[in-house]
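Q: Sequence in, structure out?
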Amino acid sequence: MKKNLLNLLFSSALILSAGSAFAQYPKIPDDVKKQSDSIMKAATRQSDIAWEKAKPIMEAEAKQGKPYIPWAGRPTDLPQSELLAFPGAEGGGAYSFGGRGGRVIVVKNLNDSGPGSLRDACEQGGARIVVFNVAGIIRLKSPLIIRAPYITIAGQTAPGDGVCVAGESVWLNTHDVIVRYMRFRRGETFVGRRDDAIGGNPVGNIMIDHVSASWGLDENMSMYRHMYNDSTGKIEDKLGTVNITIQNSIFSEALDYWNHAFGSTLGGENCAFVRNLWADNGARNPSIGWNGIFNFANNVVFNWNNRSTDGGDYTAQYNIINNYYKPGPVTELKDPISYRILKPESGRSKLPYVVFGRAYVDGNIIEGNDKVT
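A: Exactly. Output:
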């Protein structure tokens, strides 16, 4: 009797764990949802106030050759600089204007908001270069929403050990953004606010360099599409992020709070992801979220347990070149997942037969598997 009871309990536990594994997303209680809605309503209100102040400056600069183009969906929709964003910049985002030629705004404290804060600098209008005379942890109480284009956040200007943004997400809801030498640690387990460490609604001309993003609740970083609302009342357009580079960066330790410890969803038109590290994420290392040519080269992927690189659909085109995949403690070496470089998707196709995208895969190393290497 005791043995049968133990078997029954063990079987029930397996069923429950399997159910939770496939669910991935939590059921949010009404009171928690109400609290989350209140946080987002306040954050949106604050962002809207800053946006109205920024508009006149943006309109004046548009007449001087720096237009705001939120409807960009192709690489040629956004003008690009004739100069590199900085020495060593590569890929689609290499010629982002960022804040070049604009005001220099100094972050003077680690406050969530108010004069001298990072939020205040990011919410300004017009081309701007954000520098720091403080170091430490900026603990956000609500998402930091960057809406005005032409901004450079120069984390390398901070003294000491630099700056870490923690507790909430940073949304890049614009174009011509350069972010360098910053750390983002979402690190919050409030069920009502489940999102990335850094992401948002990125339009294009985006350069991410020497950044680390960890402890995300959806992914650590996602950049592949943006939603455009033309204010006519019609359904929003879903457009690819254009001219984007993520280089020399780390995306690690996504929180497995709801069986959703994922690295990144990336993609877009004219994109490049080079010399990055994805470590200790269950899956999406990264996932391909758009049907443009996905350029993924000289990256390191370590310690996955569900999927390494995956995604795309039957229209996707992949260049996966010279990457290093190292299984870790949670990678099942006896399973194909331990040596699978790419898991392309075909289930999204409405065609009556299975069609995969096209992939060029060369020069990749799978540690411990000479056959696939």
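Residues 25-290 form a domain with the Pectate Lyase C-like fold (CATH 2.160.20).
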